[in-house]
Structures are given as C-alpha cells and as structure tokens.
Model the fold of this input.
Amino acid sequence: MVDTWNYHYHGLLEYRLLESDPKEYLTNLFHDPYHNEGTNSFFSSHDSYWNDLKSNVFVKIISIFDIFSFGHYYVNVIFYVFISLFGSIAFYRVMADVFPKQKTIVLLSIFVPSFLYWASGIHKEGLIFTGIALIVYQVYFAMREKIFNIKTSAGLLLGLFILFLLRNFILVIIFPALFAWILANRRPQQGLKVFTVVYVFFTIAFFTLRYVYPGFDFPQAVVSKQEAFTQLKGKSSIPTNKLEPNAWSFVKNMPQAISMSSLRPYPSDVRHLLSLAAMVETELILLLFVLFIVVPRKDTVLSKNAIYFSIFFSLSLLLTIGFTVNNLGAIVRYRSIVLPFLVAVMACQTNWKSIGEFFAAKNKKNQALTAL
Done:
C-alpha cells in the first residue's frame, strides 16, 4: 500500500500546483531535469527522463482525478477502476471469441487474486493491462474481420501509447509476439512453427543489434535493470546471480529466472498474509498447468494463433521479470498483468469433464467398497 498512497500524495501536490501555477502544471511533464542527457537513455533505470516519465505521468493522471474528487483518495480509486475496467472487458471479448464454449471460465480467469489486487487499486498495473488488452483486442478483431480502419488504428495507438508512457520495455516484448501473430494469421496451419521461427530470429537480434547500432544494446539494458533492482533493499528481496551482457550468461541464468518469476514465492518464502496468498495462488496455477498438460481438451478453438500469442508474450514477460527483479513482492506485482492470459488458456484447454468423471467414478468405487 506504500506506493498507492505515495502516488496519491504526489498527485495532491500536482493538484495544488494547478491552483498556484497553471503554466508549470501544464508544462512540467516535458521538462528534462538531466539537461538533455536523460532523453538519450530510453531503457536506463536511473538519471533518465524516460524512466521518470512513467511515475510523472501516473501522478499527473491522479492530479486530474483530484480536480473532480477534490483530493479524496477513495473517489479517485473509483475513477481509476472505471477506466481500467475497459481492459478487462477487451480481454474478455477476445478470449470469449477464441473459446466460445468456455465463456464462464474466461470470465473467471479475470478474477486471479493478484491481478485483482494490483489492478484494482491506484497502481500502474491496471492501466498497463488495459493498454495490452486494447492492443490484443484491436489486432485480434482486425485480423478476424479483415478490417483495419481509423477506429482500429486509434485503439491500437492508444494501447501502445499507454505502454510507452507507463512501462516502455513491454513494447520490446510485445512487438515480436504481435509480429509473429500477424505472420501466423497468413499461415493458420503453421502457427506454432511461425511463432518459433520469429522468436528465434528476435532472440538472435536481441543479442546482436548492438553491433549494428550501440543504442540497441538490449542485453546491457536488462543487466542495468537487474543492478537497479539489486540496489533496492526490500523485505522480500533475495540474492540472485549477477547477469552479464552476453548470451551465455542469459542461458546460464535462465533456470533462476524461471524459478523467480513462475515458481516463487515458495512456502519457505511466506512472511505475512499477502505472501501466503501469493504462494497459494502460485501453487494453484502450477496445479492448473499440470492438469492442462495431463488432461488436455480436444475441442477445436477459433484461433490457435491467439493462444500462441498469449503463451509466447506471457512467457517472454515472465522471463524478463525473472532476469531483472529480485524482490518477490515486485515479482508478484509485475507478473499479475499476464496471469489472466495464461490462466484463461490453461483453464479453457483443460478437460474438466474428464476430471469430473474420474472423481465421480472414484467416489462410486469407494462407496461400493464401504458397502462391502
């Protein structure tokens, strides 16, 4: 709760600035305190105009809420949740179209506890998820209906703009997934192959583009992010292996990254009620993953490529989080925005009828043995 109230107090300062100096209020978002040097470090974690922009924009949004709420925090929450709700609606409409016979399960997948927690309060996650969902919604229905008009363009640009302002590195992660999705749509029967080839290409580009243009040193950007998080001392921070900006270091640290972003918190990591809730959620999602693998549903879906997009994009973001973040609380928060995509895919592709029949048969057998 520290961050959300911190944003609130800074929003109040901006709100008062509007009263005292409207010109400064309208222009301070465009000031570079690092004297032009900060605008050259797009992915930097410190002394960067772009790194500061996400918090500055968020505070500015809250200050606009304050104009109508007169600075009341809980009224601002209602405004914020009303806006971020459009992301959940867009997500539901896409997934309900992909899984037309599983609409109830799709709806329930939105109620992942960590997603509800971080998307419902005044945290950036609600708007970030809305940006991602808008992009997915516009791309999916544009390809499905083969119509790309001004409305589609506006929605797509709005989603990209939200990500640019609030968490710019997600643009680098979502672009390969979108590119693969669009290509795979032209070869529907080879979707998985297309996604695999595209991701192999972009993985190679990730490590080699710096030799073409030094500003595209993505491995160093990830290493810098890890160093920045390591310097932040939180109660749930844990020691991690140091990354180096080369391919072998990333391969060597991949098991750690997967463990950090997908398997933790472990039961041994539980320190309070929220960490207990995060641990239980993690274990339940892992159980769902096992059921998804062992008892898959055989029904055909409307768009396998939408499923591939959800999986490849989500796993890419989880890997990025695992490589850079060493604080368990931050990990639970950052990964919450992709959990609905993964949960919806796994839950809708699990054969719940077979599972129910198995337990019904087992219960009937136990009853027969008891009668004997």
Q: What stands out?
A: The radius of gyration is 22 Å. The chain has one domain: 72-371.
